[in-house]
């Protein structure tokens, strides 16, 4: 029971306790993810300016003067040298909904990830992610709630503001949290306007099909791009009672296909499908002309999304089958901070070179 409840995006404070379960053949930590094939490090963003005496990243030099930019390398050409990365990354300054549509038509897969703060969003953007979702999974991974339901609109806007400040290329989509769009289309529009005005995000996402059609239309009519979300919808977890795979049965699958069409007709620029059979997701991706982004929905979608904390191994006890972990940051950070604690306790830190 506990496992069922935990295998999805809502209840994540679990009692799994089992070690990292990598899919066979997946890259392991430090397997080339952080360096290009030729050993070249990923480019620094060039966005931060140094303060006097600040070290340049990795250089050990204390030569920066006020306002000096960190060493710049071109942002995207490196991907041509890094064969572990996308082979056809769109070399564009800013991803728009039109570019995503073009990517679908060209057969170029779309890479999407969640972010909740400035620093991580800047890294993901520099890594070439196409869409950054300020997901209401912030309720789980940032705030420690069991479900996505408690997070407020103000809290989502705070996260989105921070993310937007770190992003220069990706399209930033912000989840409208539970309770801020379901009651009526006007409330949905007002929530969306607050998100767009106060965060600077580029679009909103909401969960549901036919039942949110009018809300979607009203938001889009005001000029705000909307991404839909079907399949496992974590805001409805108390209706489902479980985070297990959705739409296995014909009736639910048929409703999902109909809802996907409704969302496309209402004007959604893209659709997330969460935790449904791969064959169903592939069928929907083929039938729709808008991009379909999957999470636990197989390789037939037009793109993939993962929760960043899962992909990086910050979350420890969350092992759904669909998740590929690229790092085990929980253990890496724990070890590093443990060393720091040891160094402080022993008096080893700071040494004479680390003081004034
Ligand atoms: O909130 C979230 O992180 C999401 C993704 C799981 C798609 O909606």
List keywords for this structure.
single chain; 356 residues; alpha/beta; eight-stranded parallel β-barrel; 13 helices; 10% strand; disordered N terminus; binds 3-methyl-2-oxobutanoic acid
Task: Walk me through this protein's architecture.
The protein has helices spanning 2-6, 78-81, 97-106, 118-126, 138-141, 153-166, 185-199, 213-221, 237-240, 250-266, 278-287, 308-311, 329-346; strands spanning 110-114, 131-134, 171-175, 203-205, 226-231, 270-274, 292-295, 303-306. With 356 residues, the chain is of the alpha/beta class. It has an 8-stranded parallel β-barrel, surrounded by 7 helices. Strand 4 (203-205), helix 8 (213-221) and strand 5 (226-231) form a beta-alpha-beta unit. The chain is globular and about 65 Å long. Mean pLDDT is 82; it is low at 1-8 and 10-87. The site of 3-methyl-2-oxobutanoic acid has 12 residues, from strand 6.
